Amino acid sequence: MTPLNFTHILTQAVDELSESESYKGLFHQHKDGEPLPSAKILHEIIELARSILFPGYYGNSTVNSRTVKYHIGVNVERLFNLLTDQILAGLCFGKPTEGSAPAPEARREEAAALAAKFISKLPAMRKILATDVEAAYNGDPAAESYGEVICCYPAIKAISNYRIAHELLELGVPLIPRVITEMAHSETGIDIHPGAKIGHHFTIDHGTGVVIGATSILGNNVKLYQGVTLGAKSFPLDAEGKPIKGIPRHPILEDNVIVYSNATILGRITVGHDATVGGNIWVTENVPAGAKIVQTKAKK
Q: Are 53 and 63 in contact (CB under 8 A)?
């Protein structure tokens, strides 16, 4: 049987796939001057940001105290240019504005201003990431140096992506923050929504399978182990039966909370400061400060 015998099958598939009803909600129609974000460029942006935040560990490994300012300067300039383009793509992809769309020049100027504001946040971001590295090092007896933590630990990669994405989200950048945290999710198995609010000295031990929902709030000195879920219970629905978005639905973990592996904490509940949640536990009610919640042994 020759390929020509399949022509009618291929033609029918093309016709069906081209029907507007079949791609409703799945088709992004290109408009001139409105680019889509690029996963490849966003990956380069993350590598640049990491090389600025952790000089010598990412990017050019030959950097030293005499050349660090030069290297950071070069990377900041490239980061600004790439980020401006990607923020512009995010703004174009975002919700349409009421009335006439902004002129391309005005939209690019907005993107450049947001990129500059983000870069102004990098010094503070480095300070808080330094506390995350410290927490990971102090929390793991197997860690031999800060350098090992920065180079090897998936938590630092995931948390750095989260902190980058969170700042962009706080600036009002659409789409790009979620792409950045999902990149870390693919790389590390750690899923942190950029909307979560997380304090300093945060660490995740091992990390695979951790999920932190969009409206979660974590205080300072919080430690999670692998498989922990900070999730939501069933979603309330509106009059049309659709999930109501934007309401607080994830847990609050106060300062100095430890959650051990495979614990599941659901809903807008509070785990009080200095509390410990044991492994393989399902928690849907508030946990008092200082409490230790563990599995009870079955009575014989």
A: no
Q: Which residues contact 128 (CB under 8 A, 6 or more apart)?
A: 163, 200
Residue 77: phi and psi, rounded to 5, are: -65, -45
Return the H-helix or E-strand segment holding 259.
strand 258-259
- Strand order of the β-sheet with 211-212 is 191-192, 211-212, 229-231, 264-266, 282-283
**Could you tell me how many residues make up the chain?**
300
What would the DSSP string read from start to end of 86-115?
Answer: HHHHHHHHSPPPSSSPPPHHHHHHHHHHHH
pTM over 0.90: no
Which two tokens mark 81? 């240019």
Nearest to 197 by CA among 177, 216, 169: 216
Q: Quickly list H helices, 171-246.
A: 176-188
**For 138-183, how does the pLDDT look when each residue is reduced to its tens digit (9 = 90+)?**
999 999 999 999 999 999 999 999 999 999 999 999 999 999 999 9
DSSP-assigned letter for residue 244: P
Residues 243 and 258: their CA atoms lie apart, in Å, by 31
> Cβ–Cβ contacts within 10 Å for residue 12, how many?
10
